[in-house]
Amino acid sequence: MRLGPLTLASNLFLSPLAGYTNLPFRLTVRELGGVGLATTDLVNARSLLEKKAKALKLIETSPADRPLAVQLFGSVPEEMRDAAAYLESLGIASADINMGCPVRKVCRVGGGSAMMTELDKTARLVKGMVNAVRIPITAKMRLGWDEEDITAPDLARALEDVGVSAVFVHGRTREQGFSGSVNLAGIRAVVQALKTVPVIGNGDVTTPEAAKVMIEQTGCAGVSIGRGAFYNPWIFQHTRHYLETGELLPEPSFEERVRVMCRHLDLMIEVFGEAHGCRMFRKVAPWHAKRFGPAKEFNTRVVLVSSRAHFYEILAHYRRWRQQFLDEAGELKPRFRPPPMTASFMQAPGAAPHGHITVPKGPVEVW
Ligand SMILES: Cc1cc2nc3c(=O)[nH]c(=O)nc-3n(C[C@H](O)[C@H](O)[C@H](O)COP(=O)(O)O)c2cc1C
Question: How much is the pTM?
Fold first, then answer.
């Protein structure tokens, strides 16, 4: 997979998840393999230029965290340009632009010309960034505001003309938030709108099969995975294996899941210190536990975790409590096993939604 001048080890990308895709999580998934490029949480371009401590922490990286893209957020062309140049000077591999949904409903009310003005404005901003650096500039967008206002193909074409290296598309509209199904036809329309620039599909990829279906049905060059990486940090390695060989690797065992969760916590403590790292882990640990089977006793306690030793006490208690759900071989009894994950776009039409991923709280307008 090529991204401008970069050659990536796979066509699988870690999506930005504000509050989660920090250095410890990126290292955790990278150690398991298969990631082509990982991205930071979104970073405000102005805060970065002002060297605000919070912004600098968001771009903290290490030699094992390569190649790394930083996602920038901002609407002042000079700030976005200078922030991209700053990232390049730091050795960051690529800069992504957060376009959550850049063409707002007001533009639609203003009619086509207002929309084109907005597209022109966005294209000029991106052109300023592309011209200022040698690293790839990419853009991440949704399909559009709502079903009547699908702007991603036009926007992507305008960005291709000014030299972006890839376009990431979450196959939902702004209005959809995280509900409903990811629209593969919508992603395909973006692929078809572009001549040379690769499109990376995104949304609800929770299994290797879902990645394959998205690639085959949209023609996208790769997929970007966000929440699925929390349920299953092995998803990149397993998907790469599946795409290359057609073989599905077995789901990781409980012990392997626990090992990776503990590794994640250690990295959190290394990067953020014990007290803060543990506090941050309170919202992260329940994601790891989603495939543990019954996990109430773990989740209610881990949201209070205050130290590494406390975490291990919680885990030991949970292991004892979990025994009741196990058979003689130490495996979860069938009725306690979590159901298989199913991407929204792979469910039979009319079927009640099942196996879907949790909908997060947060500022959807910038995602
Ligand atoms: C908690 C959370 C934080 C997110 N933060 C960002 C962000 O900072 N920038 C962005 O472009 N998208 C953000 N997104 C959107 C994801 O990158 C992705 O497009 C979306 O979750 C769909 O992919 P998924 O189904 O694989 O998670 C966020 C999503 C979630 C759930």
Answer: 0.94
